[in-house]
Amino acid sequence: MNDMTRSHGGTLLDPAPGRTGKTTTSNRLAPGKLPRGLQLAGPVLLVVLWEAAARLGYLSPHTLAAPSTAIATGFEMFADGTLLPHLAASAGRAYAGLFLGVLAGVVLALASGLTMTGEALIDGLVQIKRAIPTLALIPLVILWLGIGEAMKIFIIFTAVLVPVYVNTHAALRGIDIGHVELARTLGLTRSEFIRNVALPGALPGFFVSLRLAVTLCWTSLVVLELINTQTGIGYLMNRARDWGQTDIIVVGILIYAVLGLLSDAAVRMVEARALSYRRSIGS
Q1: Domain ranges for the chain
Q2: In 3D, which of 278, 157, 269 has the Cα closest to residue 217?
Q3: Which InterPro entries does this chain map to (predicted)?
Q4: For the chain, how big is the Rg over CA atoms in Å?
Q5: Which of 172, 174, 197, 232 is the most exposed place for a label (fewest CB within 10 A)?
Q6: What is the pTM of this model?
Q7: Across the strands, what pairs with 7?
Q8: For residue 21, what are the contacts with CB-CB under 8 A and spacing of at least 6?
Q9: Higher-confidence residue: 10 or 97?
Q10: How far is CA 278 from CA 150, 218, 226, 266, 282, in A?
């Protein structure tokens, strides 16, 4: 066995003969990190092919407008003041539901993750909600709250709450028992334990959930704004569908995509700052 697992005085994972040894095992077993900007290669290629198909006549403008046409339409709508009020209405709904959902999810996760009573009363209810598609609640919520803004914000709130709760709760339950024992040895009070041990330990899970939440708030809004609205990006898309204006529909899709990506990038930036200690420890 030793002869089979060793070669030239080292293991099979050692650098091959003639190499400098700078290539580590992890570099050879796992893919490297892409250079900055190459992550966009796929989307850029898709847009180029889409534009080419439209210009060569393979894609009818009645089926799908070319990217250049949609971008020009978007600038026109921005310049004549059509776009901004609808964009503000959509952002207000999305971020109001996001804020309420994140706040409620964190509070419920803390109550459930740090107390046995909370675990008994809260966790089962959230798991039941997790099994129910959020959009399936729309007919019932319309009966409760009507078809106005409250209904839309409430649906986004329920969509956001579940991932925030689940990931934050899991992070709290996964805190190293050694940290808990150390807190007991030091005689920390419960509030000190929560502030100095529980909350910092739950941050990685919370940021994972927050990234999911900022995506969910926009994907939920897409459907909600097709339900009897007079403002919002979804309203513009719904009206454009009636008139066959695929360029405006593409503008709406692009706006949803850009806002979702920008929201995710903002969360990742905050996460990098808040969890910078992990990078310094690992370096």
Answers
A1: 66-282
A2: 157
A3: MetI-like (IPR000515), MetI-like_sf (IPR035906)
A4: 25
A5: 174
A6: 0.77
A7: 10
A8: 14, 15
A9: 97
A10: 40, 30, 43, 19, 6
d(CA 63, CA 250): 11
Q: What is the CATH number of domain 66-282?
A: 1.10.3720.10
Q: For residue range 114-167, what is the model confidence (pLDDT) as tens digits?
A: 888 888 999 999 999 999 988 889 899 999 998 888 999 999 999 999 999 999
Are 156 and 97 a contacting pair, CB within 8 Å? yes
235-246: pLDDT as tens digits: 899 889 888 889
